[in-house]
């Protein structure tokens, strides 16, 4: 069940984090494409905070696609990548939402 911030509602009703594509493991980037971090409906700074929380669980070389409809994400995600030494791959659109691709380099 999806919580108010786009996270998954746990058994006790608490939001546990952004929704993850359930059909592949975290960090999988093979034929299935990038790991998806769905932050639609979240406002600054939540998309960047959730990206920062996801990165430690991803292997070097993995690509994470952040879906974020907050206009600030277009500036915040590339800036976060520069500050944290990750590779910003660019913006696209997925399912009608702005999407920002980040490659994990460290």
TrEMBL record:
Residues 1-16 have a biased composition (Gly residues). Belongs to the sulfur carrier protein TusA family. It comes from Rugosimonospora acidiphila. Residues 37-61 form the UPF0033 domain. It comes from the Bacteria. This is UPF0033 domain-containing protein. SUPFAM superfamilies: SirA-like. Residues 1-34 are annotated as: Disordered. PANTHER family: SULFUR CARRIER PROTEIN TUSA, SULFUR CARRIER PROTEIN YEDF-RELATED.
